[in-house]
Structure formats: C-alpha cells, structure tokens
Write a structure and sequence with these properties.
Blueprint lengths: L2 H23 L6 E6 L2 E7 L2 H4 L6 H13 L8 E6 L3 H9 L4 E6 L23 E4 L3 H22 L2 H23 L1
Parallel strand pairs: 3-4, 4-5
Antiparallel strand pairs: 1-2, 1-3
Helix pairs in contact: 1-5
This protein binds zinc ion.
The site of zinc ion has 6 residues, from α4.
Length: 185
C-alpha cells in the first residue's frame, strides 16, 4: 500500500466506522460497510438484524444491495468493499456472488470470520477470485464492538436478569393485591 493509498483506504474505513455507529444506535452489533468504485462510495450499509428482525441484513449485504441499485447491475466487479469486521460465511458468499474483487476489513472475528479466522472462503477453488486484506484501523473497528458489548453488559446488570424482572413483577402484583384487600376490609 503506498502512502496515498493508505490515506484513501483509511478515509473509506472511517466511513464504514460511521455506518457501524448507526447500527449501535439501533441496538445492533456495530458493523459497517462501504463499497467503493473509481474512488467513489456507491454503497453503504450497517448491521440491521435487530432493527429489522432480519437474519440476513448484515452490513455487507445492505451495502451490496445499495451498490447494485446504484450501478443497476448485480455485478460489482472493480469494486472494493470496506468492512469493519471480518465477513461471515454468508457475506463472503454475497461478496463472491456480486463479483466484488477486493475486500478490506478491520477487525478479525475469531468466532465467525470466513476470510481467515474460522474458514477461508476466498481460498476455495471457486470461479471468482477475491483479494482481501485485514488490519486497517483494526483497533478502532474492534473498540467500537468492545464498547457496545461493555455498555450492553452494564445495561443488563441495571435491568437485571429475566428471572429477576419476573420476580419483581410478581412481588409488585402481590403487593397491589394486599393493598386492595386492606382497603376493602
Ligand atoms: Zn455477514
């Protein structure tokens, strides 16, 4: 990567991070993606699994759909996808199906990553070759995830477990019943 290239790659990864922040605002795991062609952004997406209750609406898929609409073509050849987290198996499939040539991702996903962590989908002997690299702004990409999960754990602690909430509701109900009995007696 030349210095000029690195600056451009970082600029696009920062745009992907801004997409990821939109997911976090919805309570979705913050992952964001950008698709670039001829130095221009033609697709953006963020994880909307919770917001839309759609198992398939990962950031990459949302960005691929927008880029296809933009180009009026399902073929995204000569495009680069920037994504904050290593793509999963479904998204790796979507990248191959849409003929994206280059993938640049930030953080590794040791639990579900399909580039190098769990499987190496782009190394399979398929009809389409995807060049990929990782590590660009990796700390920022992983910090946004860590921060999201830390906040979520804190919120859960505040609200309590499902069992604790059920117990509290039951106790409140019983207290109301006792109050009613006191008033009627
Ligand atoms: Zn995915």
């Amino acid at each position: 990567m030349s210095a000029e290239n690195t600056a451009e790659h970082e600029r696009f990864m920062l745009a992907a991070l801004r997409e990821a922040a939109k997911a976090a605002a919805n309570g979705d795991v913050p992952v964001g993606a950008i698709i670039v062609r001829d130095h221009k952004i033609i697709g953006r997406g963020y994880n909307m699994r919770e917001a839309r209750q759609d198992a398939l609406l990962h950031a990459e898929i949302a960005a691929i759909r927008q880029a296809c609409r933009h180009l009026k073509s399902w073929r995204l050849s000569d495009c680069t996808l920037y994504v904050t987290l290593e793509p999963c198996l479904m998204c790796a499939g979507g990248i191959i199906q849409s003929r994206i040539n280059n993938v640049i991702f930030g953080a590794l996903d040791p639990k579900a990553g399909a580039c190098c962590s769990v499987v190496r989908a782009f190394d399979l002997p398929l009809h389409h070759i995807v060049n990929w690299q990782h590590g660009l702004l990796a700390a920022d990409c992983s910090n946004i995830l860590k921060e999201f999960f830390r906040k979520r754990r804190e919120q859960k602690k505040l609200i309590g477990t499902k069992g604790q909430r059920k117990q509290a509701a039951l106790e409140a109900h019983e207290a109301r019943l006792r109050n009613n009995e006191d008033e009627s007696s």
